[in-house]
Structure formats: C-alpha cells, structure tokens
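Help needed: design a sequence for this.
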C-alpha cells in the first residue's frame, strides 16, 4: 500500500523512493509536460516557522503542476495566536485542501498533524528532528551529480546535532549499499547517538573528525550545514560554535576532482562566496532539483487519494516523553505513543529515548 503521509522517508520503500526519483528526472527534463497534472487541486502550506526555500519550492512545485496554493508563513495572523490547537487547525485545513505541507518548531508536529488530517500531510521540517523533502532533494542531487546512491564516502559538516536535514539524510543514505560517513563537527555539535546507531545497524561505518581540511581529501560528497542558531538555549553557546568550519578555495586544493559540495541553504558564513564558482559546488542547482523532487512527490501522494482520517492508535497510559521539544508536551491531547527498543521506550513522535 502506498504511504499516505510523508513524515519520515523511512515509510517509503526503496522502490517507492526510486519511482519518485525516476519521476523527478522525467519532470526535470520536461517540466512543461506536467503543467496540468494537478489541475483543480489545492495545496495548503502551514508554516509555523520561517522558510524561504522550502515553502516557495512547494508553492512553485504545485503551481507548475497546474494546482493552486493557500497557506500561512507565520502563525501570527492565524487562529493559532488565539490558542487554537494543532489538531483543529489541521482538521479544518484538510477540509479545504487536497494536500498539506507543514513546518513546525516542535519535534513530531508533522506526525501529530497527520493523525487529524483527512488530506495527506508532508513534513516540511519538524524542529530539529526531520526534513524528508530536503532529503529527497539531496538524494536526487546525488543521483544527478554523482550518478549513484551507493559506495559513496559522504562528509557531513557543521551542526550535526540540531540539523534536521543531516538527520534525515543519514537515515536515508544508510539504506543504500556501501556508503561511509565522515562526521565533521565540534564535540558539542556531534551527531546524536540514535543516528550513529542507525549507521551501524545498517552495517555501515562512520568516522568523526574535527578538521574539515583533513576530511576533504577522503570524501566524494561534502554536505555543509549552517550552525542552527535558533535551536540553541542561549546566545553565548551559539557564539562559541559559529565560524569554526568554513569552506574556502584554499581548503579545496586537497579535495577530489569529482567532489560534489551540497548545502540545504540558507548559508550563513560556512562557505565563502569564492567557492560558488568552483564546478564542484552544486548547492544552487540543488535548490532547483528540490522543486522537481517535490513535484514528483506531490504526484506520488495525490495518486488515487481519497480524503479520510485514519483511525488513531491508543495511547500508552501515563508514560510521557522527556524531550522538552517534543510536540506531545504542548499538544497534550495527543495519544502518548512509544515503541520498545531493548529495555528502552522511544517516543513515536520525536524518536527520543525515554
Ligand atoms: C534547512 C532547514 O530548514 O532545516 N533549510 C531548508 O529547508 N532548505 C536548513 C537550515 O535551515 O539550515
């Protein structure tokens, strides 16, 4: 059965992901051929957190498919500011629209929204948790620029702790054969343990480094990220971390000829402007590829779709998630859902261990 909501790319089989990438390739070659594919359809974009690229990329994708778009890009002018719950907002929007994209500062918010939506929900970023459509963008870019998703040595650099694009990408790339990861960060911004476990559970290897220059000669792909200022508890902590990893043309002397440099954007200071003209820098075309990937995803999700709200699972009694950024803390009506791993309980919304 095809996936109704896209909260985590894990819910798609590799063959479904392959179909979407195949469609994205066809669209990228001839976008105008698809200009009527979503005629009469409406997308709602519910953005509770700032975004330029993701929101406009979804808007451009739906408009290029012949559909229309409604939505908000800040909760300020909506009933959310009057205290409306996420479930009520989503339920109403899903009556208006055929598909909903949601971005929210709380982890697990997209999953929570999907449980009350009659229309398919796409996670456009839930706090520091996941960002599956950026990952579709990233793997489509890898496929176009490297020709494969296997046997790559991928360096990820910057804020590996808070970067949801990093988290989603590692989960997805770990499903393909023979990949290796080089994790370049300060100890404070290292990749969370549960994601290191994902790599090793898939039989893959990773290495941690604190020097970008040292890592550059060994990698096929460099995924640069910005330090996620908005996810720090205090300004001082952010100040200590910013400006540590900066890519410039000098560092690139040691890099492979076939290296590809990706970045989800926005960039702050982690890549010097001089790198933009290096043929190995693909981050601007990556943003364009993201629009084709999202067009393909929308077509995949709307295919044969009829509106309904799926039955909700029963909650797990009194157990609560200990993550202060989990959506279940703010939206208290949500059924508390956990899966067991070893002797531990893992929250189904934010994936944090209890
Ligand atoms: C990313 C995000 O929002 O997580 N941006 C994006 O969607 N293109 C990366 C970031 O904000 O650093």
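Sure. Designed sequence:
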């Amino acid at each position: 059965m095809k996936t109704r909501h896209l909260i985590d790319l894990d819910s798609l089989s590799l063959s479904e992901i392959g179909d979407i990438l195949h469609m994205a390739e066809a669209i990228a070659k001839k976008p105008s051929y698809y200009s009527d594919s979503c005629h009469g359809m409406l997308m709602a974009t519910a953005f509770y957190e700032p975004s330029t690229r993701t929101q406009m990329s979804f808007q451009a994708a739906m408009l290029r498919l012949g559909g229309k778009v409604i939505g908000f890009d800040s909760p300020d002018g909506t009933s959310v500011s009057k205290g409306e719950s996420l479930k009520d907002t989503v339920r109403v929007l899903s009556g208006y629209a055929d598909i909903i994209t949601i971005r929210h500062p709380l982890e697990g918010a997209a999953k929570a929204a999907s449980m009350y939506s009659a229309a398919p929900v796409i996670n456009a970023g839930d706090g520091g948790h996941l960002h599956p459509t950026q990952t579709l963008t990233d793997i489509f870019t890898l496929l176009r620029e490297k020709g494969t998703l296997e046997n790559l040595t991928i360096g990820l650099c910057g804020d590996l702790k808070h970067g949801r694009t990093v988290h989603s990408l590692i989960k997805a790339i770990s499903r393909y054969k023979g990949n290796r990861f080089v994790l370049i960060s300060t100890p404070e911004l290292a990749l969370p343990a549960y994601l290191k476990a994902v790599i090793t559970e898939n039989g893959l290897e990773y290495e941690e480094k604190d020097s970008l220059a040292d890592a550059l000669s060994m990698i096929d792909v460099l995924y640069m990220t910005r330090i996620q200022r908005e996810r720090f508890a205090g300004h001082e902590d952010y100040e200590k971390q910013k400006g540590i990893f900066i890519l410039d043309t000098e560092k690139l002397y040691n890099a492979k000829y076939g290296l590809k440099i990706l970045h989800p954007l926005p960039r702050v200071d982690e890549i010097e402007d001089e790198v933009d003209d290096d043929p190995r820098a693909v981050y601007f075309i990556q943003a364009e590829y993201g629009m084709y990937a999202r067009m393909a995803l929308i077509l995949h999700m709307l295919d044969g779709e009829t509106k309904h709200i799926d039955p909700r699972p029963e909650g797990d009694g009194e157990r609560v998630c200990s993550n202060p950024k989990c959506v279940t803390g703010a939206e208290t009506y949500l059924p508390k859902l956990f899966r067991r791993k070893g002797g531990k309980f893992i929250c189904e919304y934010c994936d944090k261990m209890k």
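The longest strand covers residues 42-47.
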